[in-house]
Amino acid sequence: MADEPKEPKPPQVPTGDKPASSTPGVSTPAAKPADASAPATPPKPAAPAPPKPPVVLQTPLANEFVTRFRAKFGAALLEAIEDRKQAILTVERARLVEISLHLRDEERFDMLADLTAVDWPKREKRFDVVLDLYSFPKNERLRLKVHAADAEEVPSVVSVWPTANWQEREVFDMFGIVFSGHPNLKRILLPDEWQGYPLRKDYDILQQDTAWVRENLGIESGQ
Amino acid sequence: MTLLGADELVINMGPQHPSTHGVLRVKLKLDGERVIGSECIIGYLHRGVEKIAENRTYQQFAPYVDRMDYVAAVSSGLGYCEAVEKLLLVEAPPRARVIRTILTELQRIASHLLWLGTHALDIGALTPLFYCFREREEILKIFEKYCGARLTTHAFRIGGLQYEAYDTFERDVERFCKDFESRILEYETLLTQNRIWIGRTKGVGILTAADAIAFGVTGPVLRASGVKWDIRKAAPYAAYDQYKFEIPVGTIGDTYDRYLVRMEEMRQSRLICLQAIENIPAGPIMAKVGKVLKPPPGEVYHAIEAPKGEIGYYIVSDGTVMPYRVHIRPPSFINLQAFDRMVRGHLVADVVAIIGTIDIVLGEVDR
Amino acid sequence: MMNAILQATLEFLKLYWAPLLCGVAIVAILPLIVGYIVLVERKLMADMQARLGPMRVGPHGLLQPIADALKLLIKEDIIPDNADKLVFWLAPVLSVGAALLALAGLAIGPAFQIAQDINIGILFVVGISALGIFGIVLGGWASNSHYSLMGALRSSAQLVSYETAAGMALVSALLFTGTLNVKSIVLAQSKDGEGIWFVMLAPVAFFTYLVASIAETNRAPFDLPEAESELVAGYMTEFSGFRWSLYFLAEYTNMIVVSSVATTLFLGGWLRPFASVPWLNFLDFVPTLLIVAVGAYCIVRAPKQPARVQQLFMLAVAGLCFVVGLALLAPVLVPVAKPFYAGIHGGFWFIFKVSLYIYFFMWLRFTIPRYRFDQLMRLGWHFLIPLSIINVLLVGVALIAGAYFNLKGWGLLLVTTPAAVIALVVALLILNAEKERNARQNQTVASDFYAG
């Protein structure tokens, strides 16, 4: 078969018992000597290993596609990075629909695979609305990001990709982000009268809309 | 329906109904016997899985993933483990990848068998259900021998596998695959050329290719509409690039085509399993990952071909042991959006057939 | 005054004691028989589905019907809020009454008939069983539920449509006899040396009646109005407990009625195969052989049973089989018992044929999916009714030709077979036209026959 024949070793217990917690997976040669020097002796408090630089996997992206895009939209493209072989573009919120149309029609990203949001409460524009696109003809994926502040509306891309309908409703349901131009923006997973937006970081995991529970289920919320 | 003094009737197929495959509420607007509009009301099984993910470590969250699509837990688990591995920049060793492939393909067969049994039951064929469950039982026995659980298996770990393939694993899988060919013939004898089955499924619930892509529909529904796309071929993961298999494609995109596509997929899965067990490479089953997983900050979107479509995991890491955000792109949720488009103009008796043919699992729709 | 009434009653009983006894026997035993038919259905279904079926209640589930009957009798009687109480009570009674009454016109043996020798035998049976439709419609209406009403209307539309096709098919067979009297019909299939079952003379009519009778009794694949996985749960929804069991009884009794009518008209009633061919008289031993074979099988399986009680049970069943086998053998061999031949063997063959027919019903139910309502109606009106009417014409022409050439008995096959072939060709033509029509339209057409 294609894969290399390794000499049959007995199945090994995952070797994760290093006393020093290193970032796993990043196999830098520097890690080996540091570990080999402390096999059974307790970790010495003095002379610790030099602090490893934080691993930053995001690199700016500047390929042909980005160049084309920047040429067309200029300042609307706020950032173009690559993270673990994925292309991520951050664009201006106001021009989202125009950019989406361009991406769908000219760049052939005909499928919207995923539309979701991430909450970064410490940022001024706390929400990241993330669109994952896929192009059938080119077999390529692209991520679009849009920043939005708490009360800001994000234009809806339902007119570009009809699949965004339920996905935007779910983002509205969980985060409270309003999508302007959405035909039917109401809650989808939670009951219509629920108060609160659960996936925001300030909504505690044990929190519930106790008034709704009391009224509709007739019980005191266990939380 | 002037008999009852209403021109348009709104009926409710309530959350409790034998044919909605879970707690799905469908409001149908009828003109006489014909459906002119529909609305799916979901959320009855919403458990806040994405919120829970922010409060568990990466390994602790893995069993939650099984509970979404509880019919095909192994695939969901594979998607999650591979997504986190992508985040960690590790790769599972070859032996683990091949065993993962075998188990995932067996799970695909099991999921399609359950779909076939329940779909046939909704349309009125009482017998295929029992035949399908007989085969599914064999697969679940293999899962039980492998990881101890039949349904919510948590079979894979981040970085590889925890359990080695048990002694008679290859023999069990081979025996199942050898028997399975004649069984598929059994189901086909009962249904494929049956005039009543064709009458109930041909021309019902047509979804054109353009509509399917626009609605983001993936999986057998998309393939039946004529789009030949499968993530196992487009962006191979696990060990799929090593095996030869076909992607079945339909033409019209009606219920009959979806039936044929899924039957053929079962056959292809069987072929993949047979090819895989011939040569499972020796070696470790777990990559070198620490006990404490702290992926470098960043994000990843990883999608695999689950039996129901493309299941995607969008995981954002902030460098700590718990993920910052996990979003699951469930195929059933997205496919269910196309229900309204598929059901318009059909009779009420077709509604049940169309819900069955999309193959939804409410655990995945609602998370 | 009292004396006169008493006298009249005694006179009545002297004349009609036999049919009365038959009637009482049927009404008393029928619920039990229906219960066991249901058990047989569940066991058959299980067998075809690679499982066992009821096994718990009694040995091999044999007491299951008793348990079910008891459960239904002690259930709470729920009447919907705004239901019309009188009609709610009346509807199941009508259904089961019509079904049981229809049984009166059937002859299981030459002597066993409740409505003895009535001239309009078959018409009586068909007409009375059509009265059962009232029970369905009234049941749906009295439930005060929109869905039940829809289900009842659909069910009654289906029954009425297929009644026509069934009637035409029966007419094709009746052309051979010229009389509606049940006994004469059966005897016509055995005229000495010339008797031939009408299924051979009019196979297309038999097939039409077969399909129509499945639709008549609301069995799969025509059971959309009462299927559980459909939106409309049917006219029986609001009935529970004993009321529901009456509907259930009516359904299975209807199955027995249509099977008996088919057996009488097409399969030779109580006659043994080739009843009038003397050199095939050894077929008289077939009933005994069949039952004794079952007994022998029980004896062979007895030692393999795990528990002593089960072994004894198998041996008891084998003993019963041997006793029945002996009873069947007696009229053939023992001269003293010869007069009972027609009754005992007639009963056996009739029940055997009815069972085969019902087995076929059950087999179909487990094998094929169900028709959608508009497809069902289209099948009835576009296919079965034209086919059965054309068949009547063809059979009539064949008979005239037969009379012209002086053909009788088996000779009639010479003229009826071409008629059957032409009918078959017509059927294929109709089906072809339907298929093309379906292929032309991708969308399905709304049912024009939906009442309301």
The helix tally of chain C amounts to: 15
CATH superfamily name of chain B?
Cytochrome-c3 Hydrogenase, chain B
> Distance between termini of chain C?
55 Å
**Euclidean distance between termini CA atoms of chain B:** 39 Å
Outline the biggest β-sheet of chain C.
none
Rounded mean pLDDT of chain B is: 90
Question: What's the overall average pLDDT of chain C, rounded?
Answer: 84
CATH topology of chain B: Cytochrome-c3 Hydrogenase, chain B
Q: Regions of chain B with pLDDT < 50 over 5+ consecutive residues?
A: none
Q: What's the number of extended β-strand segments of chain C?
A: 0
What spatial form of chain C do the alpha-carbon principal axes imply? globular
Structural class of chain B: alpha+beta
What percentage of amino acids of chain C are in beta strands? Answer: under 5%
Oligomer: heterotrimer
Annotation field: number of helices of chain B: 15
The run of helices and strands of chain C is HHHHHHHHHHHHHHH
Estimate nothing, just give the exact number of structural domains of chain B. 1
Radius of gyration of chain C: 24 Å
List the helices and strands and how they pair.
The complex is a heterotrimer of chains A (223), B (367) and C (452).
Chain A: H1 31-36, E1 58-60, H2 64-73, E2 77-83, E3 86-91, H3 96-105, E4 111-119, E5 127-135, E6 140-148, E7 154-155, H4 164-175, E8 179-180, H5 210-217
Parallel strand pairs in A: 3-6, 7-8
Antiparallel strand pairs in A: 1-2, 2-3, 4-5, 5-6
Chain B: E1 9-13, E2 25-31, E3 34-41, H1 49-53, H2 58-66, H3 73-88, H4 94-123, H5 127-147, E4 156-157, E5 160-161, H6 169-191, H7 195-201, H8 209-214, H9 220-224, H10 231-234, H11 255-278, E6 298-306, E7 309-317, E8 325-329, H12 331-337, H13 339-343, H14 348-358, H15 362-366
Antiparallel strand pairs in B: 1-2, 2-3, 4-5, 6-7, 7-8
Chain C: H1 2-48, H2 64-73, H3 85-103, H4 121-130, H5 132-142, H6 146-174, H7 182-188, H8 198-201, H9 203-216, H10 242-266, H11 286-301, H12 308-333, H13 341-367, H14 373-404, H15 413-440
Helix pairs in contact in C: 1-2, 1-13, 3-4, 3-5, 3-10, 5-6, 6-9, 6-14, 9-10, 9-14, 10-13, 11-12, 12-13, 14-15
